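Work Package 3 committed the consortium to producing structural models of liganded targets before the mid-term review. Because experimental data for this complex are still outstanding, the team generated a predictive model from sequence and the ligand definition alone, so that downstream docking and mutagenesis planning could proceed in parallel. The input record is reproduced below exactly as it was submitted to the modelling pipeline, together with the SMILES string for LNRAV4D5.
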Amino acid sequence: MGFSTIHLSEDGWSVDILDQTLLPHEFKTVRLTTMAEAAVSIRDMLVRGAPLIGATAAYGMALAMRQDPSDANLQDAYDRLLETRPTAVNLRWALDDMKAVLKNCAEADRESAAYDRAAHVVLEDNSICFGIGEHGLKLIRDIYQKKGGNAPVNILTHCNAGALATCGLGTATAPIYLAKIDHIPVHVWVDETRPRNQGAALTAWELGRSGIEHSLITDNTGGHLMQHGMVDMCIVGTDRTTASGDVCNKIGTYLKALAAHDNGVPFYVALPSTTIDWTVNDGVKEIPIEERAGEEVTQVRGLTADGTIQTVTVPPVTTCAANYAFDVTPARLVTGLITERGVAPATRDGLKSMFPEQA
Ligand SMILES: CSC[C@H]1O[C@H](OP(=O)(O)O)[C@H](O)[C@@H]1O
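The resulting structure, written out as tokens with the ligand in place, is given here.
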């Protein structure tokens, strides 16, 4: 991709992350040297996206073990990293994975074991992204051929479930990148994704770098495009998918799924297995929805005509805003779940057949 979202620095222990709050106008890395810094980078969304949050938390545990490998610090690091963001289940999954490995290690071995396991989390995500790409590519190819093999496939995506959200090709974007390699023409409708504009600031940036044709649209445009046959499929990411196939993703995803269902547009979710929460069934009732600061809604950051970065307030300064960061799309609105092992129906049986070891 030409950039790394997270990697071990040359000193072999500190961790460099791409500060995504500065994109697309500034490209800067931040060096994490403590667990606390890793926690802040997740909470303040310097890193974001379920898989990348998990990977950053894993390295946060490694930084903690380097500082103090005691049982008490292991638990403290687990708790403080877990509380950074409540919705993406990869955070809990990665922390549980690290804790399971570390608690059985002698204190003297915990630092090296933690760094090894964190590196494994990164490599596994990279592999999962590629698997999602391969299975999603088949769907894109099918649509391309049904259109006669000479017109671009128009794909709508929401937020950023791209390389920037992961340690690899992305989840929703992986099939798109592989289609480019396979010379299948694709055009992506990029939802700007208010309030933090992950689509406008992140997806547009990464697709542009990769030479993928795309058009930025407001979050309210997708339904109109679907009514006029301008969307061949939707592919979105997920932060937590329940055992029965309900999909929690960036706020606004549910509305896109409703429009897709109403217009007969296939609605796919790119789902790494690390984002499945096998402990919950009803997404609307059971998944905690993060509420973030109202300033993310009332303020916008961008590039001025003279090339400076500024933040402005749009509504009256006295206006208060509600800022729900995610919503839940019921499984009935999902055409299929693109996992690293294949495309599964958005049902309990569909997921169990794909991941029988979880049954
Ligand atoms: C591949 S997970 C991407 C997922 O994460 C985003 O949320 P956030 O930017 O707040 O971390 C969004 O829901 C994406 O679909």
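Reviewers should note the following from the model. The chain has two domains: 6-124, 134-354. These observations will guide the Year 2 experiments.
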